[in-house]
Amino acid sequence: MSTLVVFTIGFSIVSHGN
Fold this sequence. Notes:
rod-shaped
């Protein structure tokens, strides 16, 4: 579950950053 959370948060940051 930790991996899924990290992936979701990371994707959200990248999407917002880009």
